[in-house]
Amino acid sequence: MNVKLAYYSKTGHSRKIAEAVGKALSIKPLNIEDNPSVFGADLLFIVGGIYNGLSASEMIRFGEKLKPAMAQRVAIITSSAFRKDTQNRLSMILKSNYIEVLGECMVRGAFTVISMGHPNNQDYSTAIDFAKKTMEELEGTSASDDEERGE
Ligand SMILES: Cc1cc2nc3c(=O)[nH]c(=O)nc-3n(C[C@H](O)[C@H](O)[C@H](O)COP(=O)(O)O)c2cc1C
To answer: What are the pLDDT digits (tens) for 66-98?
Structure first.
């Protein structure tokens, strides 16, 4: 399975989370600001923060350019101070581009004194566990599809 990982990070939390997930899965984190190529991904993890209740515009523009030939499926990892607002707009854009969205994992970031000290090791583990589980479920699905086809 071709798995890729892209992140957008204004203040560094999502970069650190992406690096932790990348290390755990042996995937190189790609910075969305470098306009990375993600052609041919069966699964793309997108990691990013929430700013004033919304996804970053850079993240939205990246999502708008994605096509199924670049990434068939996306799983989102969101870092935010309150873990309340989601990357809902990004999900909608991806779905309208015919990309399957497998889910969103909420990880604690920080904002001034709110949630200070996050993301911490527990937060990195939350993101890594989500990424591993997403991959396992996908591998399970494709194995049972193969069985059904008698492959
Ligand atoms: C300008 C700004 C606005 C933010 N607005 C929110 C917000 O509305 N809700 C929230 O939960 N966190 C908010 N945060 C906290 C960020 O979502 C959190 O720190 C996240 O981990 C940032 O990711 P990054 O370091 O990768 O940029 C905001 C942070 C900044 C810098």
So the answer is: 999 999 999 999 999 998 999 999 999 999 999
